[in-house]
Design goal:
The chain is of the alpha/beta class and 359 residues long. It is built from nine helices and 13 strands. It has a seven-stranded mixed β-sheet. A two-stranded parallel ribbon has the order 1-12. Helix 4 links the parallel strand 3 and strand 4. Bound molecules: pyridoxal-5'-phosphate. Pyridoxal-5'-phosphate binds next to helix 3.
Length: 359
């Protein structure tokens, strides 16, 4: 690969497209004649205003975000959203949470500080190896919202349908799958995503929220910085936004648009995932623990029965230009995160290596 780069299978922060890094490099010392880098300019300057406006316009265009949704560029990571969602959206104090992995578990736990939270479904007894079916969801029709994690980064599962929640708004953590395929935003009340998996460097959190769900009047304990309505009204400029990650987000959106948008991204991601899953389905050494209908396109988990073999595999791949294949510390085994920026060649190289290793 150019610049002696390796194939980085990290779950996040993760690979960015080389052309995006090159554009950032070319702009580094003097952004388009401004005489300074994007890191150095006032967030209230005209030149920066254009960057953030373009980032939002591109995100709206690429994702097809309807006009009645606000886009916010925030900080604090997806983890702050675990608190901001209940602080802003609880009205009656009741919400439904579906726990399909570690992050949705954390979101469920955090929400309990603010209300009466119902565990509407979980696949924990099955080691989070699948996503529940619609008929397994015990939804409360009077809940203020239903929360899901759309792609489970650690367990390698994904909702392959959007749950029907009637009039109750659906809130989804899209941290590890945003921009990986087309998604019907109008089916959601609120979407949030930490940017460091598929969009930008760490430090930026994207929130897309249906306007009618945002309320100015919140309980006094809610920090102003955690009030969506304030953030949206100030167009993410209530305080200094994460300027540089927003700029890289714009470059990544330019790249996605150039690649043909989210349908093209989906085809690219399906192709990569199929190479890996097809091999795993035929392997006698490595197994993928996920139910086929719940397989993630972005995070592919696998393991050999023997942990010594797993450790040897991780070591040998890393000596061969493929890094970060170790599974999350809570589950062990291996995980290949193959976000948008991972080229097909990276997955081909990995599978060739797996085949040789198995032999
Ligand atoms: C990484 C991740 C998080 C945590 O994101 P932070 O930005 O580190 O808070 C939450 N949810 C999902 C699905 C993730 O992949």
């Amino acid at each position: 690969m150019a610049y002696d780069r390796i194939f980085n299978f990290s779950a996040g922060p993760s690979m960015l497209p080389v052309s995006v890094l090159e554009a950032a490099r070319d702009d580094m010392l003097n952004y388009q004649g401004s005489g300074m880098s994007v890191m150095e300019m006032s967030h209230r300057s005209k030149v920066y205003d254009e960057i953030i406006k373009q980032a939002e316009a591109l995100l709206r265009e690429v994702m097809g975000i309807p006009q009645n949704y606000k886009v916010m560029f925030l900080q604090g990571g997806a983890s702050l959203q675990f608190a901001m969602v209940p602080m802003n959206l609880l009205k009656t104090g009741k919400a439904d949470y579906i726990v399909t992995g570690q992050f949705s578990g954390k979101a469920y736990q955090e929400a309990q500080k603010y209300g009466e939270i119902n565990l509407a479904a979980t696949t924990k007894p099955e080691n989070f190896s699948r996503i529940p079916q619609q008929n397994e969801l015990k939804l409360n029709p009077d809940a203020d919202y239903v929360h899901i994690c759309y792609n489970n980064t650690i367990f390698g599962t994904k909702w392959n349908y959007i749950p029907e929640t009637g009039n109750v708004p659906l809130v989804a953590d899209l941290s590890s799958c945003i921009l990986s395929e087309p998604i019907d935003v109008s089916r959601f009340g609120l979407i949030y995503a930490g940017a460091q998996k598929n969009v930008a460097p760490a430090g930026l959190t994207i929130v897309i929220a249906r306007e009618d769900l945002l309320r100015e009047e919140l309980p006094a304990f809610v920090p102003t910085m955690c009030n969506y309505s304030v953030m949206a009204q100030n167009e993410s400029m209530y305080n200094t936004p994460p300027c540089y990650p927003i700029y890289v987000c714009k470059l990544v959106l330019d790249w996605i648009k150039g690649m043909g948008g989210l349908s093209a991204m989906q085809a690219h991601n399906q192709k990569k995932a199929a190479i890996l899953y097809d091999y795993l389905d035929s392997s006698k050494l490595f197994k993928n623990p996920v139910s086929p209908e719940s397989r993630s396109l972005m995070n592919v988990t696998f393991r050999a029965e023997d942990d010594e073999i797993n450790a040897r595999f991780v070591k040998e791949t890393s000596a061969n230009g493929m890094s970060n294949l170790k599974g999350h510390r809570s589950v062990g085994g291996m995980r290949a995160s193959i976000y948008n920026a991972m080229p097909v060649e990276g997955v081909e190289k990995l599978v060739e290596f797996m085949k040789a290793f198995e032999k």
